[in-house]
């Protein structure tokens, strides 16, 4: 089986106002979600709840198709940072399967979200980023 991060698919839930503490397992594949909650108290403590959650997650993970398990085990690509809130790097795939990248500026204008996209293929990495930052400053 592919090696996955220890926390993959597992979240810690702490809601003191509802006296709700435990680990929540959620794995989605092809629109179908498998989920289960492991409360600390009913499981015999925090450590045991975490152990039960990992065992359950591993059982669900083992039933996934090989390609899905391998994809989950891979490291995520580092996302390019712009240093400006509202300016993001986007990698999109067209319906024809072509991949394209752009820098996008986003802001709110009269209550609705607006965006401007600047193609890296057309302008180059630096110029597209500078244009997105300028658009953000000008509008947002």
Structure description:
The chain has helices at about 40-45, 45-60, 65-75, 120-125, 125-140, and strands spanning about 10-15, 20-30, 30-40, 85-95, 100-110, 110-120. The model has no long low-confidence stretch (mean pLDDT about 90). It has about 140 residues and is α+β, with helices and mostly antiparallel strands. Strands 1-2-3 form a three-stranded antiparallel β-sheet. The protein has two domains: about 10-75, no CATH class; about 85-140. It has five helices and six strands. It is elongated, with a radius of gyration of 21 Å.
Write the layout of secondary structure elements.
Layout: E1 10-15, E2 20-29, E3 32-39, H1 40-43, H2 46-62, H3 66-73, E4 87-93, E5 99-109, E6 112-119, H4 120-123, H5 125-139
Antiparallel strand pairs: 1-2, 2-3, 4-5, 5-6
Notable characteristics:
single chain; 140 residues; alpha+beta; 3-stranded antiparallel sheet; 6 strands; 34% helix; 36% strand
Quick structural summary:
34% of the residues lie in helices and 36% in strands. The protein has helices spanning 40-43, 46-62, 66-73, 120-123, 125-139; strands at residues 10-15, 20-29, 32-39, 87-93, 99-109, 112-119.
């Amino acid at each position: 089986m592919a090696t996955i991060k220890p926390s993959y698919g597992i979240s810690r839930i702490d809601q003191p106002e509802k006296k709700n503490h435990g680990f929540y397992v959620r794995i989605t594949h092809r629109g179908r979600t498998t989920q289960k909650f492991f409360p600390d108290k009913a499981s015999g403590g925090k450590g045991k709840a975490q152990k039960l959650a990992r065992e359950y997650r591993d059982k669900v993970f083992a039933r996934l198709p090989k390609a899905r398990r391998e994809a989950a085990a891979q490291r995520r690509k580092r996302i390019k940072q712009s240093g400006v809130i509202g300016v993001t790097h986007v990698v999109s795939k067209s319906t024809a399967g072509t991949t394209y990248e752009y820098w996008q500026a986003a802001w709110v204008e009269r209550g609705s979200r607006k965006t401007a996209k600047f193609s890296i293929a057309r302008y180059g990495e630096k110029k597209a980023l500078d244009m997105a930052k300028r658009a953000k400053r000008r509008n947002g």
